[in-house]
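Propose amino acids for all 582 sites.
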């Protein structure tokens, strides 16, 4: 059987760890007389914590006979809890996995379990799996889920989501989960490959994450029978209870488009829930501004504010997910044998850490982040800047489709009947409609329609940020769209908003046109803030344009989507208007 993440150390290292306890090798760090959360006893205990390199090797009252050369931290008046776990991340929301992990770790979230979809779609398999090994060299624990379905309609979806590709990911030691399962209707309708993948996931002792918005009792029961272990789509307290009753772990979300956590906890308490072992918490892939207030430490505080006891709130992002992923022998508690992911708090009531150890390395000291500068050569792993070696033509701006897309909120699209002449080069300012083109990143096909509700006064807009990685052009002016596209080519992919006076607001996404290579605090947060503000001035009426762009082609949402195959009716699973070859 494939070695899992729990097999983190070699036999040589294991022998060294034993020698530390015997006094034959010195620990590298000792937290002396610190009060730590003993999760298995659910109480606070004062002890000495010995760390050797990246592992906790001893917790108790003893100290080495010779302490020279050991970094000893006076833990009196300080409180240690396990490093927090974000178990359901989408670490490609403009940021990249490394910059996101660095930002999170400095705030105490030292383990990230991320969605592999962008890597699955846009990298050669060998380079993608090698990237997982490279990212693991950092102090952060970067782990992964593997998708069984694409979340959109792909022209070559069967070859991308082949059993061989899924299996190769499943057997990687840093892949610890299957899902999220957005294509569950296909599973219920007899998709043999998907069922086989689920069975193999369970054989590897890895859980499966569902995606079941609005699911009823019988649907959840069937999903549990087929092997699903958890779900994060609860929008009410009753839906959380329904998942727990089906034997599923339930994740409580707080994201930019689903800030449900406080209300869910409130409703659960009203329903009489006072045990939290089946609950976890997640930021569910919020863009940069959505985690500006914090990561899991922020969610802990919100849960506590709604009446969850502090220890239980901490367990919802430590012990509970560690057990869910069968990794509590290596993560999620402070005990001998675990990775030295430790948050040092100033009190038993404040989840914001003063100091953070990640794999035994300081990534926060005295309230200031100090995650080491870890560069990733994205081009070497198959994600160089987007090289667009083709041009737009007049045919790309021929709009004849009678059906347009109407935005109902940040992410929901409904069809509407286009009622205006489309031969014009510009649409009237303030009409609420824009030309929209989705075009293959390699220039092979396009889909042209109108988009209602995105903006009132948008000259030109281009984005290579989308579920499928294809290019979106939006605007009231065909010339503005052409100019925005030209600028997108110049910067190697990203997001470009072009004003009529020639000024642009840009977010370069240098890694394959998919995500940025700069850190959150080094410019990405300000770039996203500028884009959101400029789109607001152009009439964007919703809260999160990043999610809007990402989900234009995402077929796990109603009602219609624009995809590689054309305009798709999600519920009926059919193409209404096909993409045209260029």
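Proposal:
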């Amino acid at each position: 059987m494939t070695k899992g993440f729990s097999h983190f150390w070699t036999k040589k290292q294991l022998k060294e760890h034993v020698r530390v306890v015997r006094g034959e090798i010195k620990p590298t760090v000792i937290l002396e007389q610190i009060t730590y959360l003993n999760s298995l006893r659910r109480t606070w205990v004062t002890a000495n914590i010995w760390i050797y390199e990246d592992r906790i090797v001893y917790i108790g009252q003893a100290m080495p006979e010779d302490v020279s050369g050991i970094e000893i931290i006076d833990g009196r008046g300080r409180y240690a809890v396990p490093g927090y776990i974000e178990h359901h991340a989408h670490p490609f929301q403009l940021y990249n996995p490394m910059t996101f992990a660095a930002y999170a770790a400095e705030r105490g979230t030292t383990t990230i379990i991320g969605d592999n979809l962008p890597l699955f779609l846009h990298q050669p398999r060998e380079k993608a799996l090698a990237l997982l090994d490279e990212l693991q060299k950092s102090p952060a624990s970067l782990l992964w889920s593997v998708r069984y379905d694409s979340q959109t309609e792909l022209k070559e979806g069967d070859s991308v989501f082949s059993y061989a590709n899924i299996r190769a990911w499943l057997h990687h030691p840093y892949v610890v989960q299957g899902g999220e399962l957005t294509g569950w209707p296909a599973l219920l309708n007899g998709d043999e490959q998907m069922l086989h993948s689920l069975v193999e996931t369970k054989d590897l002792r890895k859980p499966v994450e569902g995606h079941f918005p609005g699911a009823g009792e019988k649907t959840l029961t069937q999903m549990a029978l087929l092997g699903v272990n958890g779900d994060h789509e609860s929008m009410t307290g009753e839906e959380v209870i329904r998942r727990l009753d089906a034997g599923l772990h339930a994740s409580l979300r707080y994201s930019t488009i689903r800030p449900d956590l406080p209300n869910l906890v409130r409703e659960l308490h009203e329903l009489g829930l006072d045990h939290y072992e089946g609950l976890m918490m997640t930021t569910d892939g919020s863009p940069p501004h959505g985690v500006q207030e914090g990561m899991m430490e922020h969610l802990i505080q919100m849960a506590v504010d709604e009446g969850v006891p502090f220890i239980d709130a901490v367990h919802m992002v430590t012990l509970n997910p560690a057990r869910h992923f069968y990794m509590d022998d290596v993560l999620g508690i402070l005990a001998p044998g675990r990775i030295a992911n430790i948050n040092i708090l100033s009190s038993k009531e404040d989840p914001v850490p003063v100091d953070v150890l990640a794999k035994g390395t300081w990534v926060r000291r005295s309230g200031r982040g100090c995650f080491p500068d870890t560069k990733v050569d994205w081009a070497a792993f198959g994600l160089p800047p987007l090289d667009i070696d083709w041009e737009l033509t007049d045919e790309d701006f021929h709009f004849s489709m009678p059906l347009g897309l109407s935005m109902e909120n940040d992410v929901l699209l409904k069809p509407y009947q286009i009622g205006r002449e489309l031969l014009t080069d510009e649409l009237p300012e303030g009409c609420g409609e824009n030309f929209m083109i989705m075009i293959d990143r390699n220039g092979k096909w396009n889909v042209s329609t109108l988009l209602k509700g995105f903006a009132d006064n948008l000259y030109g807009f281009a984005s290579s940020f989308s579920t499928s990685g294809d290019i979106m052009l939006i605007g009231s002016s065909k010339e503005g769209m052409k100019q925005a596209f030209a600028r997108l080519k110049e910067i190697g992919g990203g997001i470009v908003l072009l004003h009529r006076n020639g000024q642009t607001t840009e977010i370069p996404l240098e890694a394959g046109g998919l995500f940025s290579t700069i850190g959150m605090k080094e410019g990405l947060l300000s770039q996203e803030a500028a884009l959101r503000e400029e789109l607001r001035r152009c009439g964007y009426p919703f809260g999160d344009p990043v999610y809007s762009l990402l989900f234009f082609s995402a077929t796990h949402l109603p009602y219609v989507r624009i995809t590689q195959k054309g305009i798709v009716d999600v519920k009926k699973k059919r193409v209404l208007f096909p993409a045209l070859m260029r």
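The longest helix spans residues 520-537. The two ends are 47 Å apart (CA to CA).
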